[in-house]
Amino acid sequence: MQVNGKAYRTIWFENNVVKIIDQTKLPHQFIIKDLKTVKDSINAIKTMEVRGAPLIGATAAYGLVLSILEKNDQSFLKKSSEDLIASRPTAINLKWAIDRMMKKLSGINSNEILKVALEEANAIVEEDVTFCKNIGVNGLKIIEEIANKKKDTVNILTHCNAGWLATIDWGTATSPIYHAHQKGIKVHVWVDETRPRNQGANLTSYELNEEEIPNTIIADNAGGILMQRGQVDMCIVGTDRTLSTGDVANKIGTYLKALAAKDNNVPFYVALPSSTIDWNIKDFKKIPIEERNSEELSHVEGVDENKNVRKVRIYPEKSKALNLAFDITPAKYVTGLITEKGICEASETALKKIFK
Ligand code: MRU
Fold it and tell me: Residue 90, Cβ neighbours under 10 Å: how many?
């Protein structure tokens, strides 16, 4: 998608280096960063220079390519794969991408391994672009239906950033929105700020602005009253791991938004590529929920009047804070899953029907 009128993807491989957009610097600075080693890739995922389930999967896949470039050795590759999987726990795309790469690389001789690894990492990236595009084509139908009925702007609420910055291109939750906008349907997006890291305000609003899509940032707790006032036509969010049961793990606060949507008869959709489905775990309590540094809550970063980026503490120095990064929305609150293969009910039967 566009940044300053120029089309970008979030990650690419060039001259044996992985290029990423450093998302910790957005929206104040647009910086392209080089990842040269597997350690650089692990660090980029941990510190959230790259984030969003599909993008961390792709970064991990390229991380293995960098590992082979550093040292073409099976035990180094195995250690790299384990360290990459451990870099963030909740998004299943990370393990999915590493498992896919390692399966392809097992038994390949050392003369060929780099070529095979790069081809597979590129395939993961291209596949994600196609899947996200198809999610948009499928989700567009829902927006179109609302627009035809309403004959006015469609107001869509989203949480966190499940935009192109969280994938390679298009995004998941935003892809139907981009497709609707390109078709000339009037849309307006309510962007949850998404404390503590503000991915909504810093990333979703930023990318929608670049594509000239009307959007308004709201405090995370504002969605409820907007729904009561009839100012939200639908919600679309992304997901870091969706169980085959249809239960959805996503950024902290998603669950409360789904509860408010249910209470107000607002359709609540989750957009995802099949790489985000966990076919193994059946009990959502077994999904590992990432707990991040409490400093993400107690400190905020922004620009001062001289346009210098500054970080300040906003909590009492002695206060403790708990920073859980994800929550679970049970399937019963999900109106439908928008996937690359079509829209289905959030249930094992429906998911199996379109994917197996
Ligand atoms: O902690 P983050 O910023 O990586 O969390 C991202 C989300 O929760 C997204 O909604 C999810 O990864 C879907 S991305 C298409």
Answer: 18
| Structural domains of the chain, ranges and CATH numbers in brackets | 2-127 (1.20.120.420), 138-354 (3.40.50.10470)
Q: Is 253 left (phi over 0), alpha (psi -120 to 50) or beta?
A: left
Side chain identity, residue 208:
L
- Structural contact between residues 164 and 171, judged by C-beta atoms closer than 8 angstroms: yes
Position 90 scores a pLDDT of 98
Residue 247 known to be catalytic: no
pLDDT surpasses 90 at 356: no
Q: Which atom of ligand 1 is nearest to the CA of 276?
A: 13
pLDDT digits (tens, 9 = 90+) for 275-305: 999 999 999 999 999 999 999 999 999 999 9
Ligand 1 centroid – CA 115 distance (Å): 30
- Which of 1, 20, 161, 167 maximizes ligand 1 atoms within 8 Å of its Cβ, making it the mutation to test the pocket? 161
Give strand pairing partners of 234. Answer: 156
Q: How far is CA 84 from CA 66, 121, 176, 307, in A?
A: 12, 14, 31, 35
Q: What are the backbone angles phi and psi of residue 348, rounded to the nearest 5°? A: -60, -45
b/e code 33-67 from CB counts within 10 Å (16+ = b): bebebbebbbebbeebbbbbbbbbbbbbbbbbbbb
Q: pLDDT band at residue 113, thresholds of 50, 70 and 90?
A: very high
What does 258-319 look like in DSSP terms, one character per residue?
HHHHHHTT--EEEE--GGGEESS---GGGSPPPB--THHHHEEEEE-TTS-EEEEE-S-TT-
Which atom of ligand 1 is least distant from the CA of 132?
15
- Residue 191: which of 157, 163, 223, 214 has the closest Cα? 157
- Alpha carbon distance 255, 66 (integer Å): 37
> 74 with 68: CB under 8 angstroms?
no
- Residue 307 backbone class (left: φ over 0; alpha: ψ -120 to 50; beta: rest): left
